[in-house]
Amino acid sequence: MYFPRDVSIWKRVNHPRITPFIGYTKGFNDRISFCSVTLRRPANFKAYTTIINPQADRFTLLCQALEGLVYLHTFSPSPIVHGALKPENILVTDEGNAELCTFGYAKFWYEVNHGTSIFRQPREFYHYITPDDDLTPGTDIYATGLTILYALSGKDPWHHIEEPVALLFTVGSGQLPKWADHPMEGSEAAVEKTWGLLKRCWHMSPDQRPSAQEVLDELLAIKALGGVRPPTSN
Fold it and tell me: Which residues are in the Protein kinase domain (predicted)?
């Protein structure tokens, strides 16, 4: 039987911050046609924080998602690279907890190390593309920075760039999202610390980006300073 990558990896992980894999059904030619992901009715991060619960604690949700990423990046016997991090791939359950989902682009780290990684992001990743040619833990961290930017400013990265070619050039040339395009509310110290973390996540060299645990620790430190949030005018 053919097992798509999201099933072969997803069924092996077990963590409170990973959407549980329950099962699948077989379609034509014995291929898997549908995965039963969860018995609950979760919303993704964007829908939850903008429609269902605009007053949600975004820092708590981000930290919960990072707990899931730490688990993947430290998975034994081989770390897992998620490969599809963006707000839509963070689910928020009926209980208000964040979970990582969607493992169609995930890879075990040994696959990356042995040169089997050919990473091309699909069009639906438009605002969350990375400059990386290969899928690595650092790719997840770059995308995590973009996701944090959306969560704490309320605006997609590169929201002002409409043409895909222009966006690819901008990201590929090492340009970073600008503070002025993504205002945040919070103390000066909290905002500065947030942007310092984001810039580290967006280093052009994947191996120079912080680990998932370091990002989580920094988020907790920023939260201790009072946190930051999207401007009320958003």
Answer: 1-220
Residue 121: strand, helix, or coil: coil
Token pair listed for 12: 């092996």
Contact between 112 and 134 under an 8 Å Cβ cutoff? The reply is yes
CATH number 1.10.510.10 is the correct assignment for the domain at 40-229: yes
Within 74-136, residue ranges assigned H as helices are 109-113
pTM of the model: 0.84
DSSP-derived secondary structure letter, 90: E
DSSP letter for 123, please.
G
Q: Do 59 and 223 touch, CB atoms closer than 8 A?
A: yes
| Nearest residue to 201 (alpha-carbon basis) of 214, 210, 193 | 210
Residue holding tokens 């993704």?
44
Cβ contact 40:48 at 8 Å: no
Condensed to tens digits (0 to 9), the pLDDT of residues 81-106 reads: 888 899 999 999 988 999 998 765 55
